Amino acid sequence: MGTIPADFASFAMTKVPDDDLALVHASRGGDVAAFEQLVKRYDGKLLRIAQNVTHNPEDAEEVVQEAFFKAYQKLGQFQEHAKFSTWLIRITLNESLMKLRKRRAILEQLVDNDVDADSDSERRPFDVADWAPNPEMLYRASEFREILITSLQRLSPALKVVFVLRDIEEHSLRETSEILNLTETAVKTRLSRARLQLREDLSKYFKMPE
Questions:
Q1: Which of the residues 23, 53, 57, 110 could staple to 34 if both were Cys, CB 3.0 to 4.6 A apart?
Q2: φ and ψ at 207, to 5 degrees?
């Protein structure tokens, strides 16, 4: 599968916040100031996500600019039963992964089905969600951050975006599955795989509960 469709229809019960929707309607009518309000509202969040995926401040800035540009161009494709923020994050993730693909000159598909990763979920144990921070080690926060960034760079894009959304941005399981157009089971599987791959590098900073 290619990029995540920006106009993906989300869960029927999800509603767009009224204030976002009002600004979207105004923007569609040519109100530039209304779209600037949306930019101010989500610029910081999108920049954090882009930085955590690309690990490059310049690339992240370009990603966010391109994401907002494409969002403005495609406002007519936005499905109003979905959250505007969900749609915007999806565009940002696609742009971030495209930036990685170009930078690394690889042929990976963007947030693909990762069939092999999901198909073996019933055969492998993924019980790593109960790690607890080790206070004696986490005082060196800057060192820990550098190790985390280096470790994240080793993850495949499909695993990285799930880890960023769930463990860094703290989106719910449902929100993450909605953004990535994945089942909740697939999100759990990818998150577990990401945590397992990070475990070796980060093991000295965490302790398993007794």
A1: 23
A2: -130, 140
